[in-house]
Structure formats: structure tokens, C-alpha cells
Specification:
There is one protein chain. The protein is an alpha+beta fold. It folds into six domains: 100 residues, Rossmann fold; 69 residues, 2-Layer Sandwich (Dna Ligase, domain 1); 125 residues, ATP-grasp fold, B domain (D-amino Acid Aminotransferase, Chain A, domain 1, 2-Layer Sandwich), CATH 3.30.470; 114 residues, D-amino Acid Aminotransferase, Chain A, domain 1 (2-Layer Sandwich); 116 residues, 2-Layer Sandwich (Glycoprotein, Type 4 Pilin); 67 residues, RNA polymerase II/Efflux pump adaptor protein, barrel-sandwich hybrid domain (OB fold (Dihydrolipoamide Acetyltransferase, E2P), Beta Barrel). The strands form nine sheets. It has a nine-stranded antiparallel β-sheet. An eight-stranded antiparallel barrel has the order 25-26-27-28-29-30-31-32. The chain has a five-stranded parallel β-sheet with strand order 3-2-1-4-5, sandwiched between helices. A hairpin with a 2-residue loop joins strand 7 and strand 8. Helix 4 packs antiparallel against helix 5, helix 7 packs across helix 8 and helix 12 packs antiparallel against helix 13. It is globular and about 80 Å long.
């Protein structure tokens, strides 16, 4: 077995690989950029090598620097993780020339399947059903429009070397192609070093289902069943699960057999994923093959009991697969929620900054299931604009799908992050939605369920009771410190826009709360003033709420519901009603940056007439280019930024009259 492996990656996947190597007794080397000098992966590795400045094109994508680091440290093999050079056949060949083992598939398999254009050609020749589209390179925007019109809208514009949701746009008309084609080309060039583009038919209301395959260098290939990855935003997965609630045994076997046949055809000898687009009728088409480890591999590990990183290492070393297809079976159900540094209330736009607080849920066995959290960050670390906005991957397992969802919902409650925007409220919302629990999924799920954007969920009666009880308990705890003589039993609690009379009795360890003819018991209270998480049980059901003081009262979030709460005496409540309502600032004549990032272009000048919906600027953050549009007609009166500027969220880019 290898004695030392170099990890040509960063973040949570680097940490994930280190953990497996430690268990196997293999020393690790981590390469790092300037932005990752103090990262968790650098701290955990046995050796580290600095490879350049923060932009990936100057560090993690420079093959010569990676090879030099391996030679310098004596590493016998390189694990590329996912992204960066993981699907670069040239890099795999370079490793072979340097007598360094590439822990991934052979270069032929990468070339045949890793390139999105070539994989379509290869799959067609192999008799695999593929999505209709243009298989070939595209010269320019005019050529892209011609192709799109011949295929018929909607179409999907995709980077040939893309992956991880980067370099993808759906075009519904010619204008979308005019704007989307150059944006995808730019993203592809900066993220993958390859700006070739292809276009295919976009299938409406599809499901995204992928088959995990695993091969060795002795001709053996198996599949490890499927993952459903239909909950996506910006064409990037957010929630995955294994197995899929759509498939029956017959369809599962058919998809698995097709994936294995395709892998065998290219002599696949590592972990990889054959992706399919599936209809609600269980029909399916080959989409692409990812010739690398997938971000969502933990759910497959949880239902099979296998360590995919270990299997990749053993295969690369030349060992035979220790099992056959008949030895594999599905055990239970697993869910994965990707915790991203992004603001779901602003269309899931990236959010950068420091993790002022990072408090994940406890890992391991919980009542009825298991919790696993794959992360590459610690409290105090910074999420920068240079890389993917992922903070961690939270996974759960239970014997049933409903159980896995329940365990995930509670784990998300216990996950607390401060310092930047994060998508935990959105993930919690999905777990609580009847449609998701029923398994009626599609890649349009977010658009269907949140057509006006995500603004949280309307609180249930139980959540209003819970939030009112939390506020009462917090108010009493603060009052007991500051003015214990003012403790009383009768209060007015204003929960959002609802006012209720409440009678409370008990002490700090437990409260009996009577309101509107109901009696609630709040027990096992674990909160002290200043703590951001309030843990307790309400009528025997444990919960966690995120709490913070407001200028007046408290702001309390439970799962996907956030409410402002006031705890008032009856007299104070009377006076409070006489206060005038606050008026929000008028920003209707401004174009604001919806996220922190780098201005790529600013396309208007003072005096220019602009129309609602017209592109004003392009902001790049987390390797994604975002087109900023005017929300109303007007004439530009001021331009406050220029290409190359760094801007903050809500910074005024353009003013108009």
C-alpha cells in the first residue's frame, strides 16, 4: 500500500481524504494557496506545500506545481478530490509520466467520459440513449443561437469540462442565449481552463438521478445503487438522498446495468458517477459521466457501509474489488444537505465572510438514526470569494426515508452559524414540506415551491406556541438578573403580528404557559443570556431555536420560520400600539449589488436610458458570474463602480431618475 499520498485539493474534501488516509496508516501531503494557509486541511496534514496565490488558475489548477510538490515530498500518489484537476486527462497522463499514481480513472476513461462533448459521442456509439442536442463545439454567440433555435427552446448551455453546477445556463429564448453563452464561456475558462461549450435540449420537470460505479484495474465494475439529486438551485445540487424515492427494483437494475456497461466500455477503474435525467414515468436518458468522486458520496457510503475514498486508493494501488454486485445491498435511507455560504432570501446568492460562530450538530448515533458532518472549516475561518461557497455537508441515516428526514430536520435545528449568510433555513423548509416528504421531486422543485423566492415558511400554530414560549423564558431569565422584583405571571406576548395574553408559572428549569385555552410545558431548558441557541423541550418534544436580541424584544428562528417577538406588560402593550410604524428606506431608484464580489463589467453610463430587466452589470463571486438587472425604467444619474472593483452586498452600483 502507498505510504504517502498528496491531496491536490482543499476544504472539506481534503479533510475527508485525510481522515481515510489516517485510518489506513497513510501519510498525507496537502498543497495550499495563499487563501488556505490557515485552513483545517493544512492543520491536519502531515506535510504541506505552498503552491501560489488565491485564484485557482494560479494554484490548484497548475499541474506542474502539483507534480513538483509530489516530487519534493516523495508522495507516491495524488488524490485530486473533486473539481480542479480531478477530470483532467492531461494531468492524469502527466502523473503517469512522472511515475506518480493518479488516484482516479485511467486517462482513456477520463477522455472518453469526462469531456461532456466526447462523452455524448461515445455514449451514442455505445447505443446509450442520450438527451437530444448539438454534439460538437460552438464557434460564437451567433452559432449558439442558430443551434438553439434548431433544437428548440428551452435549451441548456453547458461547459464541456464543467461540473459541480458551474458553467451552466438554461436559455428559454434568443436573449437568454445572447447573455448566457458568453457568461458560460467565461465561467468555463476561469473555473476549468477549458471554455468549450455544447448545447442540449432542456427537459422540463425532470429528475436528476445518478448511479455510483466502482471499478478496479482487473476488469471488475459494480454499481453502488443510485442517488437522487433533484433539489437544485443555479443548476447545483443542494439536497441529495440515496436511494431514490422514484425508482422501483426493475428500473434501478436497468439503470445500474447501463451504468456498469458504459463504465466497462471505457475500462473504468475507479469511483465515478453515471448521471441520468429521468422522467416522472421512470424513463431515463444518459446525461454525462463524472469521472471522479462526487460531492454527495457520503449518502452512498451510509447506505452501503463502504468508504469510497478507501476503495479509490485500493483500486489505484492495483487491488481487486473485494466484493461482487451480488454482495451489495441497500441498507436504510440517507439524506445530505449542503450547507452553503449563501443567502436563500436573496435568490441563493453567495455570501462571503468569517465564520464568527460555527456550531455543528453532534455526530454519531442519535435516536433512530445517525448524523455525519463533512466539513473543512472551523469557527473563525473565512469563506472567501475565490472558491466554492460550501461550508459543510450534513448527512443523516435512518432505516426509512421518513426517519432520515426527521433526523435531518433536527440536525439542521442544531446547526448554528453566524457571520455570513447561510442556507440552513431553506434546507429546514424543504424537510418540513409535504411535497418533499411525499417524494414528488423534480429539478424544478425550488422554482415550483418558491416562485417568488424563498422568504421562509409561514409559522404553524405549534411554532407560534414554541417561539412565544422561548421568548417568555428568555425574558424571565434576563429580568431575573436585572430586576427580579419585576417578575410577574401575566404578560402580553406579540409574536409577529399576533398578540396573545399569557399566564406563566414555574422556574428557570421548567415553565407552565397558559394561553388561548392551551397549556404548554417548557422543560429541560438549556440557555443562558448571550447564547445564540435555545435548547429545550415543549410538551416532551425536544427542539432548538436560534435566538438573538433585537433593538426591542427578540428575533427567534425555528427551522424555516423567523419571527420578531415582544414580551410586554399589559400597560406597555397599550402604549406600544400607539407607536407609528417604521418606514423602509426607498431604494427603488438604485441598483444594488445583491452580494459581495468583483465587478466584471458595468455596462451603463450617465445619461443612458435603461429599461426594466436590462442587464446593468456582471458581478463575479464564488466562481459564478451573476447578471444584475434594472428593476424599473429610468435614466442613469450616477455610476458608483467600475470593472475590477470589489463591492459589498447592498452597495449602490447605479442610481437613476
Amino acid at each position: 500500500m502507498f505510504s504517502k499520498i498528496l491531496i491536490a485539493n482543499r476544504g472539506e474534501i481534503a479533510v475527508r481524504i485525510i481522515k481515510t488516509c489516517r485510518r489506513m496508516g497513510i501519510a498525507t501531503v496537502v498543497v495550499y494557496s495563499e487563501a488556505d494557509a490557515d485552513s483545517m486541511a493544512v492543520e491536519m496534514a502531515d506535510e504541506t506545500v505552498f503552491i501560489g496565490s488565491a485564484p485557482a488558475a494560479q494554484s490548484y489548477l497548475v499541474a506542474d506545481k502539483i507534480i513538483a510538490a509530489a516530487r519534493e515530498t516523495g508522495a507516491q500518489a495524488i488524490h485530486p478530490g473533486f473539481g480542479f484537476l480531478s477530470e483532467n486527462a492531461g494531468f492524469a497522463k502527466l502523473c503517469a509520466e512522472e511515475k506518480i499514481v493518479f488516484i482516479g480513472p485511467n486517462p482513456h476513461a477520463i477522455e472518453a467520459m469526462g469531456d461532456k462533448i466526447e462523452s455524448k459521442k461515445f455514449a451514442t456509439k455505445a447505443g446509450v440513449s442520450v438527451v437530444p442536442g448539438h454534439i460538437g463545439e460552438i464557434d460564437d454567440t451567433a452559432h449558439a443561437i442558430k443551434i438553439s433555435e434548431s433544437i428548440g427552446y428551452p435549451v441548456m448551455i453547458k461547459a464541456s469540462a464543467g461540473g459541480g453546477g458551474k458553467g451552466i445556463r438554461v436559455a428559454w429564448n434568443t436573449q437568454d442565449v445572447e447573455e448566457g453563452f458568453p457568461a458560460v464561456k467565461a465561467e468555463a475558462g476561469s473555473s476549468f481552463g477549458d471554455d468549450r461549450i455544447f448545447i442540449e435540449k432542456f427537459i422540463e420537470s425532470p429528475r436528476h438521478i445518478e448511479i455510483q460505479v466502482l471499478g478496479d484495474k482487473h476488469g471488475h465494475v459494480v454499481h453502488l445503487f443510485e442517488r437522487e439529486c433533484s433539489i437544485q438551485r443555479r443548476n447545483q445540487k443542494v439536497i441529495e438522498e440515496a436511494p431514490s424515492p422514484l425508482l422501483d427494483e426493475t428500473t434501478r437494475a436497468a439503470m445500474g446495468a447501463q451504468a456498469v456497461a458504459l463504465a466497462q466500455a471505457v475500462q473504468y477503474d475507479s469511483a465515478g458517477t453515471v448521471e441520468f435525467v429521468a422522467g416522472q414515468d421512470k424513463s431515463f436518458f444518459f446525461l454525462e459521466m463524472n469521472t471522479r468522486l462526487q460531492v454527495e458520496h457520503p449518502v452512498t457510503e451510509l447506505i452501503t457501509g463502504l468508504d469510497l475514498v478507501e476503495q479509490m486508493i485500493r483500486s489505484a494501488y492495483g487491488e481487486k474489488l473485494p466484493f461482487a454486485q451480488k454482495d451489495l445491498k441497500i441498507d436504510g435511507w440517507a439524506m445530505e444537505s449542503r450547507i452553503y455560504a449563501e443567502d436563500p432570501y436573496r435568490g441563493f446568492l453567495p455570501s462571503i465572510g468569517r465564520l464568527v460562530r460555527y456550531d455543528p450538530p453532534h455526530e454519531g448515533d442519535v435516536a433512530g438514526g445517525k448524523v455525519r458532518n463533512d466539513a473543512g472549516v472551523r469557527e473563525g475561518d473565512e469563506i472567501s470569494m475565490f472558491y466554492d461557497p460550501m461550508i459543510s455537508k450534513l448527512s443523516t441515516w435512518a432505516p426509512t426515508r421518513e426517519g432520515a428526514i426527521d433526523v435531518m430536520a433536527r440536525a439542521l435545528e442544531d446547526f448554528h452559524i453566524e457571520g455570513l449568510g447561510q442556507n440552513i433555513p431553506f434546507l429546514a423548509a424543504v424537510m418540513d414540506q409535504p411535497r418533499f416528504r411525499s417524494g414528488q421531486l423534480s429539478t424544478n422543485y425550488i422554482k415550483d415551491e418558491f416562485p417568488e423566492g424563498f422568504q421562509g415558511l409561514t409559522p404553524t400554530l405549534e411554532q407560534r406556541d414554541l417561539i412565544a414560549a422561548v421568548a417568555l423564558s428568555m425574558h424571565r431569565a434576563l429580568l431575573a438578573r436585572a430586576a427580579p422584583d419585576q417578575l410577574r405571571q401575566d404578560w402580553i406576548v406579540v409574536v409577529g403580528h399576533e398578540k396573545r395574553e399569557v399566564h406563566v408559572s414555574g422556574n428557570g428549569g421548567g415553565l407552565i404557559i397558559e394561553s388561548e385555552g392551551r397549556k404548554l410545558r417548557l422543560e429541560d431548558i438549556r440557555w443562558r443570556p448571550g447564547q445564540p441557541s435555545f435548547r429545550a423541550s415543549l410538551d416532551g418534544r425536544p427542539f432548538t431555536a436560534v435566538v438573538k436580541p433585537a433593538a426591542e424584544g427578540f428575533v427567534i428562528r425555528h427551522r424555516a420560520t423567523t419571527l420578531h417577538v415582544l414580551v410586554l406588560t399589559p400597560r406597555t402593550a397599550e402604549l406600544h400600539e400607539k407607536l407609528p410604524p417604521k418606514v423602509a428606506a426607498d431604494t427603488s431608484k438604485m441598483v444594488l449589488s445583491p452580494m459581495p464580489g468583483l465587478v466584471v463589467t458595468l455596462d451603463v453610463t450617465i445619461g443612458q436610458q435603461i429599461r426594466a430587466g436590462e442587464a446593468v452589470a456582471v458581478i463575479e463571486a464564488m466562481k459564478m458570474q451573476n447578471i444584475i438587472r434594472a428593476e424599473r425604467d429610468g435614466v442613469v444619474s450616477a455610476v458608483n463602480a467600475a470593472a475590477g472593483d470589489s463591492v459589498a452586498a447592498d452597495e449602490v452600483l447605479v442610481e437613476f431618475t
